[in-house]
Amino acid sequence: MTAFIDPERAQFEAFKGLDRDHPIEMLNLVKFRDEAEYPADHELAGAGLTGAQAYGRYGAETAPIIARLGASILWRGAFQTTLIGPQDEVWDEVFIARYPTAHAFLQMVTDPDYQKAVVHRQAAVATSRLIRCAPARGGEAFG
After folding, report:
1. With 80 as the cut, is the pLDDT of residue 125 above it?
2. pTM of the full predicted structure?
C-alpha cells in the first residue's frame, strides 16, 4: 500500500481552485502505523505511542478548532472488508467530516493551533485518503 499522509501541492491547489462557498463533506479513510513516528526532536519521540494513540491526540487537540469553525463528524463507521477495490487497503478510521464551506476547511488547516496538532496525525498515519465531496440529495435508488 502506497503511503499518502499529506496532500501534494498540485492536489491542494486543485482543492483550492474549486468553489469555496458551499458545504463540503470530506470522506476520510485512515490506516494507522503500529507505532507512532514523531520527529526526533518532538517531546513524544520514543514515547512508544501507537498510531491510534497519536491519532487520538490529534482528535482531542483539533476538536475545539472544528467546533469553532462549525464543522462536525457527520458519520463514522467501523471498516469491515472491501467488496470492490484493492484488498490491501484496510482502514482503521472511516468517517465523513462536514464543513460549512471550503473556506472553513482552509481556515482549519492554516490555524496555528491546528498546525501544532497536525504533528500527531503525521506521526499516527501510515496512509490515508481524503476525498472532498459536495453534499447531494439522498434517495432510495442508486444513481
Report:
1. yes
2. 0.92
